[in-house]
Amino acid sequence: MRARPVVTPLLVATLAVGCADSVAPRSDTPVSLGRWTGASVISAWTPMATTLEAPRFLPGVVTADDGRIFVFGGQISSIGFGTQPSVEVYDAATDTWSFVAPMPIGRANHVAALGSDGRIYNIAGFTGAPGVTATGSVHAYDPATDTWASAAPIPGNSRQNLAGTAGLDGRIYIAGGATVGVRLTEAAVYDPSTNTWTVIAPMPLERSSFAMATGPSGRIYAIGGAINPGPFTATAAVHAYDPTTDTWSAVASLPGTRGFHSATRGADGRIYVMGGTANATQGPTFLTDAYAYDESTDTWSPVPGPNVLKVAARAVLGADDRIYFIGGTAGSVTIPGNEVFGPVCGESPTVSLAVSPTHLWPPNHKMITVARGVSASDDCGTPSLVVTVSSNEHLNGTGDGNSSVDWLVTDNGDGTFDVAVRSERSGNGNGRVYTITATATDGDGNVTVGSGTVTVPKRK
């Protein structure tokens, strides 16, 4: 272990800065994210409609196997910046937050990661008031049963301000952090199947208050953070750990120094870095910019930054392939609002509706299929589609034969619909006109309406 004397960096009320009032989406050039592809897809930040019941910073945030997002512990300014054990869960299907079983101990500035067994592991960090007690304990939460259990403690020093991530191999990797008087290079990996830790090669650079994320190749990236003696001196350095060789190597640095930030792999395989501060020793400079790292080219590219300036928040990829940025603080204020980054459709969906034949004769009361494979498409996934039929005449009017039903919309089970109408009209009218309407709505509320008509004339 390499270590230098250091004043343990903790984010407390001495950091003070205003936060942006704007909540308008901040957009980027068209990109491809997960299942959303196409020229009309814009990546943008939008505020979440609902907020944490208990606003907090430095929590652990994880998306469980069932798609729910769990927020563990953290600090709350309303309780003197002490740690708390409460856990909240966000259900995107209902857009609601709720509390679940609390952690066995209050914990903040720790690692939370999903294990291969489906449990969420909360690892190390500090408990109590800021900086009082670093811990090496580990507790595992089971989302299926809403219960907690102890797991093997981390090897070596108890620590806070560390970082960690779930690897593609099902194991959980941790590194760095700070203990009394020093920053650490130590690294280890946890195997949920055996409840054991294994010490791995230390990082080339001692650091704390940094971020870790797993690339699509399985390499583990340690990004930015605090280095050197002093309260907080940030670095832009990035190192990649290869689990197959147990080695670290330097890769492209961040475009600027950064600490107390967050990172997560996006649906497109890039690693997104956002939030944080540049260098607190000169007064806090909260960062508005964000970047995405492409492992295949070893390059960083700018992407839109969150609307609200904050540090000590946590980013996580949701089951809907969007990045959720949760919690955080703007110095002396814990921020209740959360934001989500992902595709926003710049265009409305497309409706495919072709009517043939458009005229029916003779009026023999037979059902005739007039539209096949009515469908809708969209760059932002599969839109909802509703197909309806109406008529200008009263159903079963005088002289129309009183046949029932007058039309039939069939769901083909593959997202398409067929439409059949009855070849009849009122003997007292001027002919029947059926109107077929297809209404498509995408996930961002854009609506497209397509229609076609079929006529049963009074006379040939």
Write a compact overview of the structure shown.
The protein is mostly beta strands. Helix content is 0%, strand content 40%. The radius of gyration is 28 Å and the shape is elongated.
Beta strands, count? 38
Spans of at least 5 consecutive residues whose pLDDT stays below 50 are: 1-40
- Assign a percent range to the helix content: under 10%
Task: Walk across the major sheet and give the strand order.
Answer: 1-2-31-30-29
Class derived from helix and strand content: mainly beta
**What's the tally of helices?**
0
What is the alpha-carbon Rg in Å?
A: 28 Å
Shape: elongated
| Amino-to-carboxy terminus distance | 93 Å
Which keywords apply here?
460 residues, mainly beta, 5-stranded antiparallel beta sheet, 4-stranded antiparallel beta sheet, 0% helix, 40% strand, disordered N terminus
